[in-house]
């Protein structure tokens, strides 16, 4: 046997001896925690939306900014108005004698100037509670102003009589149709001078994008507000908005020169009665409770009801009990008497 073979054999025998003197390796098991529930991954927050338009908002702080309610005149001498095109929601209601007036709600947009601003009316008592807003106006019936002053927690009043720095008169029009408002100043003074909250949580409307494929079935809506004013809204299929006219003439904004439009048009029927003790035909309009409603979205008409308390905007419900969801965008609400009728075609 050669020396190389002997060496190889001895090496193999030595390896066997060494292995025999060692223990077999133990099985190694990984230590994992016992699962008691399926692991979940936090979902990213959804896009913030403005509560009154359903459109994307820049921040949580933005959506809590105080809504400003502005009482805007609608007599012929007041037209064209300034800033109504930037309001999230506009109510049109009877003031007295067949003249209508607007209650415009601003949150997501702040135009430099709004007006002409005029006096408050009884329906404002409901609306500023429902939208938790501060109210901008120039005086009003003493009985209404007394109520506004009676409870600072319910009514955050910013009457021009006591907050003149937020308002100014234009030289382009005769008084009293020339009072205009700076909303930014109004909000600042509401906090610093009156002690009102800078932010509020506002209950929004229910929103869902309207169908863009459904064929419009209603293109013209006529709302006789009074013997003096008839409002018409014509649906534009391309823009998916309703364009406003009053007494046959396009109703335009004074600054842009463009016709006023609404993404959503809502007509609500409410009880309208004389305001107790008033000698100027001022009316009370009950905007809490329930009543008939017609909602126009995307060229479609949905009939149903409106329901509202004193702490949130109205909800709209269809005849089948489902919630009527508005198309994201601005909304105009026409308030008429339970005895009046509208037409749509």
SSE layout:
Layout: H1 3-20, H2 60-63, E1 68-73, E2 89-96, E3 99-106, H3 124-130, E4 134-137, H4 142-150, E5 156-159, E6 167-169, E7 179-181, H5 183-192, E8 220-224, E9 230-236, E10 241-246, E11 249-250, E12 261-262, E13 264-270, E14 272-274, E15 283-285, E16 289-297, E17 300-308, E18 315-318, E19 331-337, E20 343-344
Parallel strand pairs: 1-4, 2-19, 4-5, 13-19
Antiparallel strand pairs: 1-3, 2-3, 6-7, 8-9, 8-20, 9-10, 10-11, 10-12, 13-16, 14-15, 16-17, 17-18
What radius of gyration results from the CA coordinates?
A: 33 Å
Shape: globular
Kindly report the name of the CATH homologous superfamily.
YerB-like
Distance between the termini: 116 Å
Classify the fold: give the CATH topology: YerB-like fold
Number of beta-strand segments: 20
Overall pLDDT level: 89
Counting structural domains, the number is: 1
Which percent range fits the helix content?
A: 10-25%
Number of helices: 5
